[in-house]
Amino acid sequence: MLSAIERYRAHSREYSSSTKMEQDIEGGEYEASWMSTRIELIEASKQKLLGKNLGSCSLDELHELEGKLEESLHSIRERKASQNRASFISVKLSIKKKHLPLVHSFQYHLLREQIAQLKEKVDYLNSVVC
């Protein structure tokens, strides 16, 4: 009796594992077919965006394509403007860092001259008052 149960269990496992494999294979085949169809659609869309094979497009499809291209162009221009702003700010900061010591040095010399002139005035006023 035990050997019959063991044979049943072994046969049952083999059957369920082979059924599972068949289901996995069928699922994989379906997924591969679906992915292949999806790739073909994406390729066709890419060709249309590149301006190829437009003869089969309806007027509505062409308007939709034009809208997508305008959106893409707007997005590209926005990104480029943002990069240009960032680059400009970076260059501006770089210039400030390079020239800031010169500006401080120039201001320092101007202030030293003003102090010297004020000292001369104070000395003159002290000599006149005393």
SSE topology:
Elements: H1 2-49, H2 59-129
Keywords:
DNA-binding transcription factor activity, K-box domain-containing protein, elongated, 130 residues, TF_Kbox, mainly alpha
Describe the structure.
There is one protein chain. The protein has helices spanning 2-49, 59-129. It is mainly alpha-helical and 130 residues long. The chain has a domain at 1-56.
- Helix-strand sequence: HH
Radius of gyration: 41 Å
| Structural class designation | mainly alpha
Task: Characterize the overall form.
Answer: elongated
* Percentage of residues in DSSP E strands: under 5%
Unreliable stretches (pLDDT < 50, length at least 5) are none
Number of helical regions = 2
The percent of residues in helical segments reads over 70%
Overall average pLDDT? 84
Major sheet = none
N/C terminus separation = 134 Å
- The count of strands amounts to 0
Give a quick rundown of the structure.
With 130 residues, this protein is mainly alpha-helical.
